[in-house]
């Protein structure tokens, strides 16, 4: 029996647990410091067994996943290192930063166990076990940060276990990880929050800001709804990298200001061209880097009941919708619905069915 202990069964820990639970020879143990949370994990069927005892979870584990917030990783590594760990036990984490946790792991004595940092590049602005999903990590990149002291055999065993997540494992140096993920995840979160707060302050004087905010604002600001303490920890942990990135960001904004001041139409067009070209090269159907899944857009007349009719049409044909969203809805004009599916097969079936039923569908 392979025992996998998960500390912090929230969005990411719960999603990993759902991928591992029920797999041959695997038993998933959920740890929480609160008894009520342990009961919730068990009732929701996310883990096989649960405990509030660090020792009980750690000492029987062959794999330990630390899925607590970044600010709690040091404390848990210290507490776990004080336990009698199994020889060959692999400890990993899923934190959004990788350099600091590698340092904490080096500073404790793990005996016959070893630490390999990890970070699945998938997630959402939601948190808690309620948001966990078996599909969350599918096709996403999953970064591992072994160093020259990590036994390749241990990396092999962890990679094999993680194959149940259907993520693509990629090895990256921990410092490089923090530079790159700082730019593609942490910086965008700061920008989204600053932008929302800028508009929030205008909205205090005129509520039309909130009413008129449409697709563009929503698309660029979804991530501003991330869990505040979770993001506080991530940003503070990666602050040296982020201070440098913010300097670059400011100079990018200054360049835009200069283009406007000098009426430089060509430079503005060129900036959009370059950005559009780079963005179109990014794989569309990969979760994580861009939060794009299997989506299509349906033109719909703006009258009540249309969402229900489309959802029933798909449901009656056993096509599972993962999300449905009105992205344009004004009185007197047709609206657009964004339909999201879990895989290409559902998307293809949905497009065929909707077109057959007379709807105009775009991708
Ligand atoms: N949210 C994302 O999109 C995302 C993506 C990849 C990685 N991560 C990383 O994954 C980790 C978990 O994030 P999440 O989004 O799953 O958050 P979450 O809030 O959904 O889950 C965190 C879990 O840790 C538990 N927890 C919090 N403090 C604890 C403590 N002191 N002791 C024990 N348990 C505690 C919570 O009860 C919860 O079950 C973080 O390190 C985060 O940086 C997040
Ligand atoms: O899609 C989102 O909402 C996320 O915030 C996921 C996201 C990201 O920025 O891409 C956030 C934090 C992680 O550590 C990894 C992925």
UniProtKB/TrEMBL annotation:
Pfam families registered for this protein in UniProt: ACT, PDH_C, PDH_N
Entry's Gene Ontology BP terms: tyrosine biosynthetic process
SUPFAM superfamilies, per database record: 6-phosphogluconate dehydrogenase C-terminal domain-like, ACT-like, NAD(P)-binding Rossmann-fold domains
Span of domain Prephenate/arogenate dehydrogenase: 2-290
Record-linked InterPro entries: 6-PGluconate_DH-like_C_sf, ACT-like_dom_sf, ACT_dom, NAD(P)-bd_dom_sf, PDH_C, PDH_N, Preph/Arog_dehydrog, Prephen_DH
Family designation: Belongs to the prephenate/arogenate dehydrogenase family.
Name listed for the protein in its UniProt record: Prephenate dehydrogenase
């Amino acid at each position: 029996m392979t025992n996998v202990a998960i500390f912090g069964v929230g969005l990411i820990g719960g999603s990993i647990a759902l991928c591992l639970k029920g797999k041959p020879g695997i038993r998933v143990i959920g740890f929480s410091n609160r008894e009520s949370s342990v009961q919730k994990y068990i009732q929701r069927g996310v883990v096989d067994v649960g405990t509030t005892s660090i020792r009980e979870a750690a000492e029987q584990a062959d794999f330990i996943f630390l899925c607590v917030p970044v600010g709690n990783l040091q404390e848990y590594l210290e507490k776990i290192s004080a336990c009698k760990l199994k020889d060959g036990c692999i400890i990993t984490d899923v934190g959004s930063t990788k350099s600091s946790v590698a340092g904490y792991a080096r500073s404790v004595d793990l005996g016959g166990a070893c630490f390999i940092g990890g970070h699945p590049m998938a997630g959402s602005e939601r948190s808690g076990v309620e948001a966990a999903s078996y599909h969350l990590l599918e096709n996403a990149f999953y970064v591992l940060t072994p160093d020259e002291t990590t036994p390749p055999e241990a990396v092999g065993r962890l990679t094999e276990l993680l194959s149940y997540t259907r993520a693509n494992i990629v090895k990256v140096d921990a410092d490089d990880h923090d530079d790159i993920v700082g730019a593609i995840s942490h910086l965008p979160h700061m920008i989204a929050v600053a932008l929302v707060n800028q508009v929030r302050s205008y909205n205090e004087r005129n509520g039309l800001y909130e009413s008129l905010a449409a697709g563009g604002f929503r698309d660029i600001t979804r991530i501003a709804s991330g869990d505040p303490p979770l993001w506080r920890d991530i940003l503070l942990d990666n602050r040296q990298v982020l201070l440098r990135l913010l300097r670059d960001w400011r100079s990018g904004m200054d360049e835009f200001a200069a283009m406007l001041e000098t009426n430089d139409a060509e430079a503005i067009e060129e900036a959009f061209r370059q950005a559009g070209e780079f963005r179109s090269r990014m794989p569309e159907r990969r979760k994580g880097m861009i939060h794009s899944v299997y989506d299509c857009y349906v033109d719909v007349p703006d009258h009540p009941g249309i969402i229900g009719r489309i959802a029933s049409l798909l449901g009656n044909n056993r096509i599972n919708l993962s999300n449905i969203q009105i992205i344009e809805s004004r009185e007197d004009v047709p609206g657009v619905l964004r339909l999201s599916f879990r895989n290409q097969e559902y998307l293809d079936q949905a497009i065929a069915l909707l077109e057959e039923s007379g709807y105009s569908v775009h991708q």
